[in-house]
Amino acid sequence: MKLDAKDNELLALLQQNSKKTNKELSNKLGLSVTAVYERIRKLERAGVISKYVALVKPEKVERAFTAFCQIKLVQHTKSNVTQFESQVAGLSEVLEVYHVSGEYDYILKVMVKDMEAYRYFMVNKLTALDHIGSTQSTFVISPVKNTTALSTDY
Length: 154
Description:
Layout: H1 5-16, H2 22-29, H3 33-45, E1 65-73, H4 78-89, E2 94-99, E3 106-112, H5 115-126, E4 132-139
Antiparallel strand pairs: 1-3, 1-4, 2-3
Helix pairs in contact: 2-3
């Protein structure tokens, strides 16, 4: 799907606040309410907009301790990879999982209450998974930039 300038503007506005009404969006974009509605529907049907979510402040739900955990698998067989990915995706503390190149095989973004909770997660959940050869953790001191918005114009 080819996005035009109005689509890009609309996506930027929706990523800032997806609860804005079509009327509010139409006023900002200089389009009719119907045109905004149709553009949103087109973006949803094309899969450009995949879902709408509420962003939660981690400190308000006791999940402000962030760690990035690098995982190295013992062996890289298809069954080991798919089993590990399935198991790690089911851990509620893990927000993101990336299969990466380099020294480690996976990078996990983990958010928990504190260091004690992270230790519990590592000992009782993560290292209990099959096929893990080694792990390395990096702890966030302070987030510098954290956004969910994707820029669509380059």
